[in-house]
Amino acid sequence: MGLLVFRCCLWWVQAMTFVVLWPYTKLRTLFMKKQSVPPIANPLLFYSAQELAEKIRTRQVSSVDVVQAYISRTEVVNPIVNAVVQDRFKEALKEAAAVDDEIMRNPDPKYWEIHKPLNGVPISIKESISVAGMSNHAGRRGNRIADSDAPAVSNLRAAGAIPIMVTNTPELCLFWETYNYVRGFTNNPFDSRRTTGGSSGGEAAIIGAGAAPFGLGSDIVGSGRLPPHYCGIFGHKPTPRIISVEGHMPVSTDPEWDTFLVLSPMSSHASDLPLIMKAAAPHASKILCLDEPVDLRELKVFYMEEHRGILTYSVQNEIKQAVHNAAFYFKNMYGIEPFKFTLENFDSGMWPVTVLMCGMKPPQSVLQKSEDPEDWGWKEVIIEIIKAFTGFSKFTIYAVIFCLLQRLVRLLPKSVEKNCRNYKANMIKHFEEILGDNGVLILPVSTATTHLHYRMYYKMSTSIYLAMFNLLEMPSTTVPIGFDKDGLPIGVQVVSTKNNDRLTLAVAKELEKGFGGWLLPRKDTDSTVQRKNQRNVN
Predict the structure, then answer these.
(1) CA dist., res. 294 & res. 279, Å (int)
(2) What does the pLDDT look like over 92-113, one tens digit per residue?
(3) Which among 121, 120, 119, 126 is positioned nearest to 86, based on CA atoms?
(4) Architecture label for domain 2-359+410-537
(5) Which range (57-61, 210-214, 454-458, 520-524) has the least confidence?
(6) What DSSP assignment string belongs to 260-319?
(7) Catalytic residues
(8) 3-class secondary structure, 364
(9) Segments making up each domain of the chain, as ranges
(10) Is the pLDDT of residue 3 over 70?
(11) 350-358 vs 2-30: helix axis angle to the nearest 10?
């Protein structure tokens, strides 16, 4: 009964929101100029983080030159994408100069490869992740400054990475559209009228625009995978509890919080993802066997082009074709026959995701009046809902609705939570039986390519393709595959069982070889050809 009511309510909300917002977004575009980021001029910006690190430690290029190249690119593209919350360009250039001095004193490249594999390479960080001295308010009003690095950031620094900026996020990372009342919309590098997704949309926009080689975002219900799909880059949701989430805003003391929330490496190159994983969490290599080679000939490949449910939109034909092409690539290259994957109650997963996540000890809330995240109740929710729908709330509507969901879930009987946990256990078992230790599932990241700003409000149910794998604690990697008819990027999602990150990362690297990888706006003509030509100039 609870699931039926949930479906009916969500369907009604989506339908009503569509009626209001679709014509508004259409009219809005008539008064907005489409902008996309300009072509990349500096050949250094086409290299992977791994390649840049090698060039720096072998003194083919200085860290200062690399960092300055990304600073210059940021200054060009940020007026279009509006992704940067705060930069640390001056500090980064000083740190880059120190790296160059270190390498001059010890010119042994092997030493730096072992001890600081990312030495001198710039990185961008999502603003919700603590970087000492930088904004860390997760899109809220106020001026919260981090007094220390999050452990993952500290580890990346220890590996030699140089943070150059923190990037935009929706208020408290609570939506799939990167928008807040402090910074406004972050725009897609392909079309400024369109969304980057969320909540790691600032990261995806900056990396997709060529203003950072790699970055660190977060993912609680797809936040580290949807933006890469919309922006033409790679994003990885690791197995939970591999990369520490300490230092992330928001945070919860609930013991299950870090089974949903993970920190997500993002990059323009698939080859960087394992390196970022190992740098952010030095123990990851051992737990996940990241250094063990993957024999792709022994892989089992499953694919799901679409799941048709009561709440889900139909999948765009070009995305279905991309999923099919990615799966059958392995047949053409390795003789692996891909199997079609079906799951009748796949879209039912939004109910347990909502119940289990909203039923946790609450993280920080927009309604809290003190340091206690639970010092608010129904009175505050009702007042703020009225304000939100009459245009007087100082909080974004999605952050207020999340508070409402938290209160509603507490009214449910314990049997509902039990049923949701049973659903989770059964689904984990089902996926483990099918995929085993050597299987991957290729499926859509979302039902469509990037859409106009505001439209995510009536497309929320499409997030089931993402949220399911947070619920099931499975690793997943977004891989860019090609463009749709409008020149917008298409990504697919590669999923495997818990602790089998190395499989999804290996498949991502193989698909990068087969389909060209990082996608740039079409005015660059062919993205792959342009990257190769520019790199050869250097």
Answers:
(1) 20
(2) 999 999 999 999 999 999 999 9
(3) 126
(4) Alpha-Beta Complex (3.90)
(5) 520-524
(6) H-EEEEEESSTTHHHHHHHHH-TTHHHHHTTTS---GGG-EEEE-S----SSPPPPPHHH
(7) 126, 199, 223
(8) coil
(9) 2-359+410-537
(10) no
(11) 100
